[in-house]
Queue: 4 jobs
Job 1
Amino acid sequence: MTTNQRQSLLSNPGVRTFLIIWLGQFVSRVGTAMTRFALLIWAYEQTGAVTTVALLGFFGFLPYVLLSPVAGVWVDRLDRRKVMLLSDLGSGIVTAALIVLFFTGDLAIWHLYVVEALTAALDAFQVPAYSAASTVLLPKELYGRAGGLRSMADDGARILAPFLGGVVIAAVGIGAVLIVDVVTFLAAVLTLIVIRVPDVRGQQDEAPHFWREMRFGFDYIRRRPGLLGLTLHFTVVNFFAALTYFGVLPAMILARTGGDEVALGLVQGALGAAGLVGGLLMATWGGPRRKIHGVLIATALSFLLGDFLFAVGRGVVVWMIAAVAAAVFIPILLGSRSAIWQAKVAPAVQGRVFATDGMLRLALFPFGYLLAGIIADGWLEPAMAAGGTLAPVFGPLVGVGPGAGMALMFVGTATMGSLMSVLAYLFPGVRNVESDLPDFDAEEKKPQITPITPISE
């Protein structure tokens, strides 16, 4: 992209508004990631059980899955900027309550589960509102790059959080991290106060029926095989990711290093750095011309290279290489996927459709977290201990002792995750989704698609 092209884009009011929102969300994510880094270590130190960490993820996603269809209806009914604003305010209030519990000495593990559940419920509204707002603010050719920027915000926060969180904890304590989190929420709130997002709700011809509107997203996806295939692909892929990448990775690192928090911080920092590089690449490149290749190939490589190296690695250096191999592809696959959905779904119904997609693709995610703890603590960790039943078979590959059972789980997800992504090419609806399904600017001309009232196609 030339300098003149960049200047032309920055002169676009919609692009400037998106960048203001993005900056506020990035600052907020840094604070949230610092808190989660600190509390994850605190929770694991309290119990020493993988299940404790896995349950944090379980409660951090189950409400999101359950509330998404309801949230999608309200995202399409209301001003999307206000939905994001109220969601961020709610998250700040939840963190403030956590501060009170911590400083009064009443904080318990179950409080963290409640906090994760409340935050997930608010995210069910915030995430589809953010995506739908991006669609109406940006020209279509920037959807892939916007996805790269959103990934950069997530991964940039992942880089900064372990370092900043560790410094603040060492200097002041965990309570100071929580206070920083509240301050960063205020940054997100202030950016949303000063901007405006175009309203695409239109006029209602009849009184809306809530349950029909909630069902609309399911019907919309079900009648478009390509979108349905993409959703189901990610449902399975996210389940595998929840089992290891999200469910047991921190516990595995701590177990295999004797609780070395620095090692965990280095690995998480490497994940963030690689994701930041991938996000920068996606933001400048925009992804492959056929975005479906960016989705499926990047997903397969992330599982095959990253998860396998996490499995066989025995030290921080190899785990950091694994983190790079896994995370550098994630912004490409997410940005490519987001670009397809934003181009194919009419902006007026994106709240409902995106929320339904989010619910379905994350439907197994909480159970992946839950099963991760059960499989690790109840089966594979004992089986891969010295003298365990599986140690003679898999010990030469992943080692034995603390963390080896979790490493064996990474072998399984490396195999299954990459295989599922390659097999997705066998389905024409998925392989040809970009050519078979018209873009939303062609679809919205059809009289049967209305902005608010659900229709029967």
Note: The first helix runs from residue 3 to 10.
Job 2
Amino acid sequence: MATPAELAQLHAVLEPDELLHLQRLLGSWSLLADLSFSDLVLVVPVSGLEGGPGGFQMVVLGQIRPNNRPTRLNQDLVGQSPSEDDWSIVSEALRRGELVRGDIEGISPAGPIASEAIPVRFGHKVIGVLVRIGREEVRPATSSYERTYLDAFDRLAAMVSESAFPFPEADVGTEEAPRVGDGVVVVDDEGRVEFASPNAMNAFHRMGVYSLPEGRRFVDLGVEESAVEWALTTARPVVEEVERRPDVMVLVHCIPLVTHGSVTGAVILLRDVTDVRRLDRLLLSKDAAIREVHHRVKNNLQTISSLLRLQARRVPAKAGREALHEAERRVRSIALVHEILSREPGDQVSFDEIVVSLVQMANDSVVGPSKVEIGVEGDLGDLPADVATPLAVTLAELLQNAVQHAFVVDRRPLRTGRPTKRKAAGVKNQVGRVGVMLAHDSDRLAIEVRDDGIGLPKGFDIERTNSLGLSIVRDLVVSQLDGSIEMRGVPKVDGGGTLVRIEVPTGPRR
């Protein structure tokens, strides 16, 4: 379904400010629908098209149903072009720029529905019509709260036709914003309460106020009234959170009522958000506890890493020292993930930060005359911790394997199947290059590590390798991440070297 902005671009000629005004109206008109107990439809004229002498072709830009009454519209009208014959009150309102009452046909099998068309102005220009479907006259038997709601709607509707509502730079309502059903208070131009709905009285009771509020100001009731004062003084809406008694929070949304430029009162929506704030505090506390756990895990892993490094210095055999250094590097790779988790909320990790640290670790491990440059292109974005951890270990192993074994020449085979060190490629100012390519689309992660070194021996197969590092990589990718790994030599005509490609699905794993 097209958005209001897309519909406006397709059918109407509206300046950016005019479109923004209509979007603000769509963002705040749930208040109007609930106060009027009616369905509302926003209609704009189609650009440059006239249905007849003085007539209009129209398109429905938006539709909303009330939360406190059954809807009169079972169909979705958004995007439709109403007939001028059936919606004559709309074309009349567009032409005259005045509120027009009458019947609308063609939207209900029960027949015509009493409605009213309210012109929507921006500045001095009528840019649309707000149609109230199902207008009902107030009978003497109607309850006081219904009369008050309808009167407030009429005052706000007049503001719509005067370009005073919605308010400039008004924020679009969020899920947490108070609604009419949460509680309504109407005050006069001096801030004295004229009406408080039953749900508003419940909010007052939660704040410890049990006396009748009618005829009194908020400050007389012992309730903070800075939001009310500010709204009445500036003629701008105010949202403020009021705290009363231990752990009682009430969200106050004050909407000034303006007539011909003068503030004549305000509609105040109250919502008790005590339970919401309590849950927020619990979540913050839980989040802090989780980050502290990651911080301690990171510290413990760093301690283990230091112990392995110290132990390696005391092992006389070269093979033993290398094994301990490899284990220490793997532990450090895991610690990187927990370090980021200890700083950021949630269980998502920015893998870019990990890659930077892994590249630095690989560069620090280059010794002797060899010169190796590592470049990175692309990114994987934010990843879940249970994916980032094995990927970090995997990438660390591949980079370490490349910088240690790709740029040396000898006849003796290493565990990887590559020759071991005798003469470094970095001599004579030659530089070995390792490239890392990262990609993340809707259904997979892809990592490529390519070097321009000596390549792989004939017949090499990662499935049958004796290298502990490559075996760890294969098991992490295939068993833990349900991915695939390919490791092959690159032909000399393509630059030579070795290419490792890993693909990991982003959907649910086995």
Note: The radius of gyration is 35 Å.
Job 3
Amino acid sequence: MTVKQSVELPTQKMSPKDFASDNVVRWCPGCGDYSILAQVKKVLAELGVPKENYVFVSGIGCSSRFPYYMGTYGFHSIHGRALAIASGVKASRPDLSVWVATGDGDALSIGGNHLLHTLRRNFDIKILLFNNRIYGLTKGQYSPTSLVGKKTKSSPMGSIDNPLHPLSVAIAAEATFVARTIDVNVKHLAATLKRAADHKGAAFVEIYQNCNIYNDGAFEYATDKETKDDTVLALEHGRPLTFGKNRDKGIRLNGFVPEVVTLGDGITEDDLLFHDEKAEDASLAYLLSRMHYPDFPEPIGVFRCVEKPTYEDCLDEQVRAAVESQGVGRLEDLLADGDTWVVD
């Protein structure tokens, strides 16, 4: 048995073109996935890690074409199982940088169980969840994140399902890195991807991604130049939760409930909630994940970033301990060990 340890990946000068495959990118014109693909290639090039050290894994959906368009190793797996495969890759090859491209349907419906356990185990995997609040590949059915009342081909009278909130799920599962960004906010998107790449542990990034065919404008409130100053709250570690064009609005606690206030008339920044992404207790991060438009400005940025042992490192330590105490084993001995039966 060979025991593989996590190692520092080598670096070299790279460009985004080095991470492009020779496949023609085929998404609908205007799809937000183009922006995500461009920024992922840009960020990976800046990291300088050779492309053969990366593996991209996907399930099924528009987002799951991602491995075809990356000039890296990759798996286009089956619906909802990308994280199971990615976990196996990382456990057997902890020296590789493993990324998962998934969607709100793929990750939160059939793949919800795998998502929970990958996050709680803290595998060092980067999970990019493209959230467009719709099933795009199968032509516009409502998804686990679609809002109540959403009329689609599968909910012609309006969805009656309560939507899942991906960040709340990730934080409840004890993910060590949780963030949200937006496809067209390319500077913020790139910075968030860089933070995720640098994190040692399970990194979960929700990306608001516009499906201009089946759910166009789902996040227009957060992207429109006329409204976004009042509908989006950019998180900054150690800073008060302020927003608005003049940064004159903020979030404070009224008992255990957040409320929007206007600075002035006796209300100062000291009265506001201060963001702490490194807090071991995830209560504040969870509270922020429950803030939704139109009642609140929606936070973007890093909600949580803490350090904990990764699954693959703990697994390797157990393997090393077993080899040191019992020696290198043989598969044949393992198969023949214990109770056996002979069927005539």
Note: The mean pLDDT is 94.
Job 4
Amino acid sequence: MQIDLGCATYGCCAWDYTYRGFISQKINDSSYNDIEVARLITPYSSFMRKGRYGYDSAWVHPYVYDVTDYLPLLRGDSVIYSASTGGWDDKGKFGFKHTVTLYLIKGDTLRNPVRVIPAFQDHYRYHDSAQMDSFIQPFKFKLKKGENFAKLRNIITGHDQEGEFSPIYFYVKLNGKEIYQKRLWKTDCDKNPIQPQSGTWIFSRTNWCPGEKVNEIEVYLPNLIGYEDNEIEIVFGKIQTESKKINALYSVESHIITYGYKDSFDIALVDIVAPSRNPNYRMYNPSCNKVRVKVKNNGSKKVKTVALEFIDWVSGKDTLMDIQVDLDPYEEKVVEFHANEFYQGQIALHQKKFNSIKIDNYQYISQTSFPRFNSKALIFEITTTNDSSKNSLVLRSGNGDTVMKRDYFNNNTTYRDTTQLVPNCYHLELFDYDKNYECGDGLSFWYSSRVMKKTSGIFKIYDANTGKLLKVFNPDFGGKINYEFRVE
């Protein structure tokens, strides 16, 4: 299911709101049973409304969700899709619009769902861990005939001051035994695919970032008792904050998905991350000679290695490589390998245990355009802020060798480094980190300027031979600039 979120005809909202998408089954003419299948947090979008930093009112961003688990609900003519979003933006003067598309993908799967059982669906006000335990009562369920496996699928976000900006541990217990734990704290908001934003988009939050999809937490439920009560519990630990008065709310949607059969080893090739024009992967693109793919373990056993095959239709070369992944059940990871810069072809995942290719485990890939510079030497120029001790630059060649590494220590200083380069692909990373924020705030950020009284900097690339300006980067880049190019 893809949700394309854009600005309303009368303008985008400026704040980060919780968008919730439901598959709703009609009970009667006035009521529905809502099952939440998709959650995202809208970006701070006044830049879209005002037409700044390359945005305009035509802005649209895609959010993709695998809703195969909810096939048991998608039957009959009484099923609808519904959505809700909060907000207080100028008393409704601004808003969002959305288009929702359900894609049916032809193929085989060994994980056909049998039942969707709503387990925990509520907003829980947190005061302390013991009080949360009294709110969230254990849930009991029985497997039916033909059901042999199950997982718990959770969508969880923290809100209000401490709930949003303080980490907390989340636990799952099955029949009295702890089977899962996770620290609910998303630390990569400063590498957001939608940037810059008009609010505090760089700050870490409790399992979400402004402008991003909320990723599901999937937990494999082992050793279920057949045809008898199984008891599942979700537990919130102690909130990690120094605040004396805690203001925290946790929005929880948890479903038990049952299956008739589940393969021990089932590896999915989820998506092509690079090269890609998908705006969700902007931090990995454009890509000169690196291929990055997202893989997921849908099986019940830990997977240590996958065999990735790349068939290059241009060169005719067929490459089979073993890649270390170490994936627990339902865990996913981005893996990468090097390729010729001129390529198109097919990527497939082999099940090493059976030496076969599953029908849903291949995708087609082709190179996209990337920057090319006709120069034997480049100048990397950076003007630092009055707090530059956290900036560093690394330049690597296409084969991974470090060509240049630079740390910038002096405040309000312009550095110009000239580097001789041979024809090759190059991968540049400029890092920023502010220990006060525990994330990066780039070389310019409105909050840093206003609150911390920081000056702004800039980063540019010049042709060293002609002095021509080749690239100017937006200084409001959060934690990292990721840039690939080729020198001719």
Note: The radius of gyration is 24 Å.
